[in-house]
Every structure is written in C-alpha cells, then in structure tokens.
Amino acid sequence: MSERYVVVNVFDEHDENKVTGWKIIDTHDDNRVVSTHASQGEAQRQAGDLEIRHGRD
C-alpha cells in the first residue's frame, strides 16, 4: 500500500543541492501541497498524523 501523504525536499532556487525545507504532498489529490516545514522531523510527524486521520475517515 502506498502512502497518501509524502514528504519531499524543497530546494533552493539558486543552488539545487541546498535543501531549504520540506513539503507534505497529498498523492490522492493531484499532488497538492498540504503544508511546508523547516524541519524534516516535523514534516514527517504531520504526514504520519495525516495518514492516521485519513485511515479513520
């Protein structure tokens, strides 16, 4: 089973090797950006919470 909410890197527009943050993407809604975070851990936590919440709907 694939995840609905995935965390992806956000790269600096001038330096493609520099990660500036993370986005949570909803793969079931045309890859809509759900939120952005400065912390990878916070983004992963919220994505996990969203997966759990979606599973209960």
Ranges with pLDDT <50 over ≥5 residues?
Answer: none
Structural class by SSE content: alpha+beta
**Largest sheet at a glance?**
3 strands, antiparallel
Radius of gyration: 12 Å
How is this structure best described in words?
The protein has one helix at 40-56; strands at residues 5-11, 19-26, 32-37. It is elongated, with a radius of gyration of 12 Å. The protein has one domain (5-56). A hairpin with a 7-residue loop joins β1 (5-11) and β2 (19-26). The chain is of the alpha+beta class. The mean pLDDT is 92. The protein has a three-stranded antiparallel sheet with strand order 1-2-3, with helices on one face. The protein starts with a strand and ends with a helix. Residues 48-57 have a biased composition (Basic and acidic residues). Residues 34-43 have a biased composition (Polar residues). Residues 34-57 are annotated as: Disordered.
Notable characteristics:
single chain; 57 residues; alpha+beta; 3-stranded antiparallel β-sheet; 30% helix; elongated
Concise description?
By secondary structure, this protein is an alpha+beta fold. The chain has one helix at residues 40-56; strands at 5-11, 19-26, 32-37. A hairpin with a 5-residue loop joins β2 (19-26) and β3 (32-37).
Per-chain topology:
Layout: E1 5-11, E2 19-26, E3 32-37, H1 40-56
Antiparallel strand pairs: 1-2, 2-3
